[in-house]
Amino acid sequence: MKAVSKNRAYTSDVARWEAVVQRDSEADGAFYYSVKTTGVYCRPSCSARLPLRNNIQFHVTCEQAEAAGFRACKRCQPNGQALEELHAATVAKACRLITTATQSPNLGVLAKAVGMSPFHFHRVFTKRVGLTPKAYAKAQRNERARSELAKRNTVTTAIYSAGFNSNSRFYADSSQMLGMAPKRYRAGGEGTTIRFAVGECSLGSILVASSEKGVCAILLGDDPQDLCKDVQNRFPRARLIGGDKKFERVVARVVGFIETPRLGLNLPLDVRGTAFQQRVWKALSEISVGTTANYTEIAKRIGLPKAVRAVAGACAANAIAVAIPCHRVVRTDGNLSGYRWGVERKRALLERERNQMKGRASGV
User: Fold this and answer.
1) Annotated catalytic residue within 42, 73, 216, 315
2) Predicted confidence (pLDDT) per residue in 43-60, tens digit
3) 326 belongs to the catalytic site
4) Which helix (H) or strand (E) holds 178?
5) Catalytic site residue 76?
6) From 46, 216, 315, 326, active-site residue
7) What is the side-by-side strand order in the sheet with 215-221?
């Protein structure tokens, strides 16, 4: 059964009928409706043909509907587990199979294991996870590769332990996956060149760092030395060098974006994180300038509505300020929550974005 507060939202027949018309899955469990002409009762979200309003009546429980002489609909199975719950359990099982498999299982194997057709499984999985089964499996394998590289004696051992069936396939993806050559990644970035430069903006000090792949850090703070230490701790064996004139122009572009966010920022990024973090960061990147979203909304966008705390953790782990706009995520009540670089900076960024977008709308 749904929470009492949810049931109260469907206490009138008008509200219940609207839920049936909209096939609102949020109303499932709050009430049921029966159809006189068919003799069955259904969930509000049932996908069967919409009956005439005069032919239905509402019931608070399945027992009440059955006591009135109606039988359960075979399509939506109102007296069984909710469809959303079934799909959640199915996807969870598939994710476990992918995570624990030595070799990534293909779509047919996964669909058979969960008792679905490949087409239906692919649609259900993608809707709930936000990635196709193939993309999710690739992300998990890449994550295992990063972990194995850190603890294995050789790159080759790590490759096969992570589930790659050939060296060539791994090396084809290694630059995108790691941001550098595998041996350099194993050595904590040894031999990797990371350029960085420190500047000043209206929010204080800013450090921009870039690997061969793209910008890997945009850090904000009060003390430039602390920002430099942060980068050093990320890749203790990397070769850190000060940016030249060309790189300083990159820093200038980042500063320009902070001061005038409506101009946008189009720079290649070297985004490193777990599969879950990257899904969250992708969702953050889709929040428009001048708008906000709360943690619950982000969790729903990535297909994991209960992962609100994990979403907050991914926001906190983001090391590329403003380019991955975690400052646009607020609490459910609209108030500002914690921000890695300080709540006051978060407030300033949001106010600046809103004001500039209002100015654009008014032609200023």
Assistant:
1) 42
2) 998 888 999 999 999 999
3) yes
4) helix 167-178
5) no
6) 326
7) 215-221, 204-210, 193-201, 239-242
